Inverse folding.
């Protein structure tokens, strides 16, 4: 195989690249910009150093040199995208490399979303569950505070990670809304088991406390592929679910003023690497991910109104596991946030 040619100090650059990949590879395995016989520019080597630092920070390794090169190519494209977005200077949010930086957008969406089986937003019909009758008493025609943050009131369990082996975001959102409602009603904040919900196919009127390491269980669920817990003790019970009027941000605001609610959104461009600020898109209304709205407010630096959303991608993502997205944009809301809104009810 022809050796790599570097623009400066060929032996050092060549050895650095080969050490990163673990072995000499056939030309067809190399990224397009690092083919055999070509000049390996300094930019590639700087990116390779950056990739290796990222690997170390996230304890990431690969089973083969070929896989390492493929992941480097994905990482490079993602890093260049992140840099380009952050350099724009006209956005109210920032992106950053995180644990998902070696995944393509398609791989990420296939693993960490999947709320709906269809290809578009749901209709406006009421969601019913096995938990009881649907609550139709909610009205948004009430005075609401200018800002709400249920985290500040101790009513939100910190964000969890659905992990790459259990992509049931709907289960995490259901648990999150019940956790918060239970605290609002009883004064007790209890972390609940998403795995038990998954085991019952999402149709349950009670959730048990989360065990110390719920993801270590090996019993497979009927939906989502995640592990299940086996506790039969119910820490919280719900009597039903309510539905909020779609395409109405005032209705969503009134609902969130009363309790955290579940919504579905499209995962917009760059959201995979969201770091902080008020996300403004771009995104559409192809609902693919379930999240929990835990508050709303106005950003002091930009003046942008936002929804505070709890995600299930771990606390190293975003603002310690949360994202703020632009509020009061009309219609379906940013990323379709007003198209499918539900909340649990509890009667003591």
């Amino acid at each position: 195989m022809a050796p790599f040619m570097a623009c400066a100090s060929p032996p050092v650059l060549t050895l650095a690249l080969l050490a990163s990949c673990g072995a000499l590879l056939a030309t067809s395995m190399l990224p397009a910009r690092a083919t055999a016989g070509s000049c390996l520019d300094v930019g590639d080597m700087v990116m390779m150093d950056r990739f290796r630092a990222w690997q170390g920070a996230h304890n990431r390794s690969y089973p083969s040199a070929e896989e390492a090169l493929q992941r480097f190519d994905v990482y490079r494209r993602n890093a260049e995208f992140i840099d380009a977005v952050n350099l724009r200077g006209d956005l109210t949010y920032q992106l950053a490399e995180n644990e998902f930086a070696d995944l393509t957008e398609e791989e990420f969406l296939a693993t960490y979303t999947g709320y709906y089986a269809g290809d578009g937003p749901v209709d406006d019909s009421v969601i019913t569950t096995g938990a009881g009758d649907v609550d139709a008493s909610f009205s948004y025609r009430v005075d609401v505070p200018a800002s709400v943050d249920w985290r500040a009131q101790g009513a939100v369990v910190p964000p969890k990670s659905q992990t790459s082996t259990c992509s049931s975001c709907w289960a995490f959102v259901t648990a999150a809304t019940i956790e918060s409602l239970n605290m609002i009603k009883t004064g007790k904040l209890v972390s609940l088991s998403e795995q038990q919900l998954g085991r019952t196919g999402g149709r349950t009127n009670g959730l048990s406390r989360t065990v110390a390491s719920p993801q270590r269980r090996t019993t497979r669920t009927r939906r989502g592929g995640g592990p299940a817990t086996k506790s039969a003790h119910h820490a919280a019970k719900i009597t039903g679910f309510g539905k909020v009027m779609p395409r109405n941000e005032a209705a969503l605001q009134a609902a969130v003023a009363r309790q955290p609610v579940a919504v579905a959104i499209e995962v917009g461009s760059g959201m995979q690497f969201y770091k902080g600020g008020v996300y403004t898109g771009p995104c559409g209304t192809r609902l693919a991910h379930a999240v929990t709205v835990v508050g709303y407010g106005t950003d002091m630096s930009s003046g942008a109104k936002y929804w505070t959303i709890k995600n299930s991608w771990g606390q190293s993502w975003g603002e310690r596991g949360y994202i703020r997205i632009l509020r009061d944009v009309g219609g379906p809301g940013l990323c379709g946030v007003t198209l499918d809104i539900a909340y649990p009810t509890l009667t003591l």
